[in-house]
Amino acid sequence: MNPGATLTLTGYSTALFSTWWFVDDLSLMLDCGDGACAALMQKSRKARTIAVSHSDRDHLAGLPQFLQLNVREKGLPVVLYPRDCTSFPILRDFLHDFDRFHLEAEEGNLWKPMTDGSRHVLGKGKATIEAIANRHIECGGSEVKSLSYRVTRNHQQLKPEFRDLDNEAIVALREERGAEAIMDFDSEIILTYSADTPIESAEFWDKTKLLIHESTFLTRDDCETRRQELRHSALDEVMPMATELNPEALVLGHFSTRYRRHEIREAILRECRRCRPSFPVFAVLPGEIRHDLLRKRPTWEP
What we know:
The protein has one domain (8-295): Metallo-beta-lactamase, Chain A, CATH 3.60.15. It is of the alpha/beta class. Helix 8 crosses helix 9 (261-275). 25% of the residues lie in helices and 26% in strands. The chain has a seven-stranded mixed beta sheet with strand order 6-5-4-3-2-1-14, covered by helices on one side. Strands 7-8-9-10-11-12-13 form a seven-stranded mixed beta sheet. The longest helix has 15 residues, at 261-275.
């Protein structure tokens, strides 16, 4: 199954400057760096949830414009943020005060704190986004200041023994026995977003259809030379991990501008020839906005 057939992904991701991703089908923003609203224009209105990973400005600087233009009833779009990062309540209160003359009394965005394992329902309940604590920001004890996210799509269907019944009989059975008695429920992880994070094992991410993963550095040596191995990932570690995980597609982003575009492409191809992934690999290079990325030609095709 081609993930591009089910998800429409647009994004910009350049280390230090700005990162944001928009999943059209889920009305979901993953981070909201500078320029998100200008790039999406009217389509930004579709966003119902903005899942922010951490408080670095390149991941949230687009929020003031995005929220002011798109605030609407029921507190939409809802902003998800790491529970123990105190910068977010400060930003929330500032933006509400700053925009108070543009808002009706009952208006204003909802901001929802998230910790490891916290969930938020997307849309009409057919998908759920879950927060995953990561190690990008070091903190003590049980505090969570930096998050990755995964999206699970939920499915339900009648159990085989009830499929020949008419609607009236099904409704009656549901009222009598409850939905669990007559329905089969299952779910699948359709998207995982690493955000900024050091490298983790394939088991950490769990099985997923689409993995969006940062690759700030091209090599572990570069990462260690700049003492960033505890905060960011390197391409030559991401590719072996992703190959073991074996998603249906991999999207790489957050590359550093210390590398030229042709260097990044060559490095991706080199690592893919080494690891031989069985899935397509897409890349968002520095300074590049990619619209409907998964329907474009990948950097690597198996």
